[in-house]
Design goal:
Elements: H1 2-21, E1 31-39, E2 42-45, E3 48-59, E4 65-66, E5 75-81, E6 87-92, H2 95-99
Parallel strand pairs: 3-6
Antiparallel strand pairs: 1-2, 1-5, 2-3, 3-4, 5-6
């Protein structure tokens, strides 16, 4: 009985750690915009056509990888650019993330 109680206690202690590991870490340097997929590797952010970099990653509101065609039209996103100015990482924002103010970029 005591070993079962100890195992249950250990499981309870590790559940919050597992939940924290799944929180999204969006860099403070990420820019905010509204993104629409145009064609292939071309998207439009706030009316300006931009290209996705080779190996670009788009994460949904559930933090799952999605292809550009699956991007909701006019989605509010945060994104980072690579060294050549192409979009490298994209996070589709949840309602709570979109309502939160941006942190100051250095």
């Amino acid at each position: 009985m005591r070993s079962k109680l100890l195992a249950l206690l250990i499981c309870i202690l590790f559940i919050p750690a597992a939940a924290l590991a799944q929180m999204r870490q969006i860099p403070d340097t990420a820019r905010r915009g509204n993104m629409v997929h145009i064609q292939g590797a071309v998207v439009e952010i706030d009316g300006q056509p931009m290209r996705l970099s080779a190996g670009a990653q788009i994460r949904s509101q559930d933090n799952l990888f999605i292809v550009p065609m699956s991007l909701p039209s006019g989605a509010t996103v945060k994104y980072t650019l690579d060294g050549s100015g192409q979009i490298h990482r994209v996070w589709v924002l949840t309602a709570d993330e979109a309502a939160a103010p941006d942190r100051q970029r250095e």
